[in-house]
Specification:
The protein is 25% helix and 22% strand. It has 343 residues and is an alpha/beta fold. The chain has 2 domains: 2-146 and 289-341, Quinone Oxidoreductase, Chain A, domain 1, CATH 3.90.180.10; 148-285, Rossmann fold (3-Layer(aba) Sandwich), CATH 3.40.50.720. The longest helix has 12 residues, at 147-158. The protein is globular, with a radius of gyration of 20 Å.
């Protein structure tokens, strides 16, 4: 799936990738998907992405070749591809900030060709691939390339959800629902999900939301405050990035609460310091670094969460252009996720 500038895409023949560095691996894609970030690229929201780039940064596949310095993987291994490439050796990687890797970070489908293709080259393979356990369902596993860790790391590492907390998730898209699912690991008293889309709110209820509030008229803050006797919530998670979402989190946070942002903010937002400065509020931001993949692999394998419960469409890899059209649709026509299967 090749990006040719804002609004322009095509599925086309390209030469098969090859090993360029001794730390590379080649992976044949068996399952991938379309992310909201891919849509942002297609709509011109990330002008640094060059025309001619193969898109995609999530995937599961089979190793078909390895460089001489790759020691953890062999030809034929089933692997999960991390959306963040990590060299494993730079200062950022040593500090656990793989997303800030000086030789990697988010490069797939961004600075180098990505995973919406039959084959993809993975730099620094030893630190950017994860072996899939025998028998693990690929449709569930591909959710660990980006979506599930994004929700989990925001919930666990930045929101610091604890037993008995009141938690609010703003945005019931794929990351918001991942935050809902993983927040339940910590036994919160309630998880309230807010979104303007009734279909997504219905999915949130099915996935365990205590309450699902429609926020079309901008009245969600008043509803949350009424539900909490004016006190607000202990944790507010911005998984939307839509105009007003971070302001909504600030409006409903309780004294001593934590606001955690995982959503890209495409424009400046207002920080209400005049009413927050003396209330012991913590505001944290995070870009996923996939440090949680090993934990989430164990959780999925043990059956503690079913990543397939969210409604989705299934298409072949050759139908990726149609997947963009479906995923980019508005209203009820838009699926939560589109799963693409290779040969």
């Amino acid at each position: 799936m090749v990006y040719h500038g804002p609004g322009l895409k095509s599925w086309e023949e390209r030469p098969q990738p090859r090993i360029q560095e001794a730390t590379d691996a080649l992976v044949r894609i068996t399952t991938t998907t379309v992310c909201g970030t891919d849509l942002s690229i297609l709509r011109g929201g990330l002008p640094q992405v060059a025309e001619g780039r193969v898109l995609g940064h999530e995937g599961v596949g089979v190793v078909t070749a390895v460089g001489d310095d790759v020691s953890r993987f062999r030809i034929g291994d089933r692997v999960l591809i991390s959306c963040m490439t990590s060299c494993g050796h730079c200062d950022a990687c040593r500090r656990g900030l793989c997303r800030q890797c000086s030789r990697g970070g988010w490069i797939l489908g961004h600075r180098i060709d990505g995973t919406q293709a039959d084959f993809v080259r993975i730099p620094h393979a030893d630190h950017s691939l994860y072996a899939l356990p025998d028998g693990m369902d690929e449709e569930s596993a591909v959710m660990l390339s980006d979506v599930m860790p994004s929700g989990f790391e925001c919930v666990a590492l930045k929101g610091l959800v604890a037993p008995g907390d009141l938690v609010a998730v703003v945005g019931a898209g794929e990351v918001g629902l991942a935050a809902l699912l993983t927040a339940q690991f910590y036994a919160p008293a309630e998880v309230i999900v807010m979104d303007p889309d009734e279909e997504r709110l219905a999915m949130a209820r099915a996935l365990g939301a205590s309450r699902a509030l429609c926020d079309r008229a901008g009245k969600a803050a008043a509803k949350v405050l009424a539900l909490t006797r004016g006190l607000g919530v202990d944790v507010a998670i911005d998984a939307s990035g839509a105009p007003g979402s971070l302001e909504l989190c600030q409006s409903i946070i309780a004294t001593g609460g934590r606001i955690a942002n995982i959503a890209p903010q495409g424009r400046p937002v207002t920080l209400q310091m005049d009413r927050l400065w003396d209330r012991d509020i913590t505001l944290s931001t995070r870009r996923v670094d996939l440090a949680s993949i090993p934990v989430l692999l164990k959780v999925l394998r043990a059956g503690h969460v079913d990543a397939r419960r969210a409604e989705r469409h299934h298409l072949s890899l050759e139908e990726t252009a149609r997947a963009y059209d479906l995923f980019g649709a508005s209203g009820e026509a838009r699926p939560l996720k589109v799963i693409l299967s290779g040969a």
